[in-house]
Amino acid sequence: MNLKSILLLTLAALLMAAGCGKHDVYVSSSAAGGEPPAKQETNRNIASNNSESKSPKVVAGNEAFKVYEPAEGTVVGTSFVVKGQARVFEAAFGYSFEDGHNVLAEGNVMADQGAPEWGDFEFTVTLSRAPTSPTGVLTIYESSAKDGSHIHKLSLAYTFEDGLMKLDN
Fold it and tell me: pTM of this prediction?
């Protein structure tokens, strides 16, 4: 096989891959396989096209993040779920949760789509130690592709449930 044939085959494969939509599902319309597959929308697309579906309320946001829950000021325990959308490079972002003295939790999250689209995310913050103050701050951020610095920071303050705080003696 010469170089020209290899390049043509590679180009054909790329064109075929580009034609496949990432939200398309193909279902065979015949058990015998005699008919071509019928294209159907995924549940996610059906829900977004449903006029009765309501967008969640944004409780905090900026140019890169929309947080739906929990709202700032919510009382949280040793773990809580954060839901929202992100419009970040390669769908990747990070978070840290601090009590003013210590980092209690941190991690990396992937949204289901990268920028320029808004991708859905959901992650659980689980404290690695007891807080030493009555409030904590969750900061979600994108890491700069240029230098790794934290950009598009969004900070939300939460109150710890009674009995969770550990006082240092």
Answer: 0.67
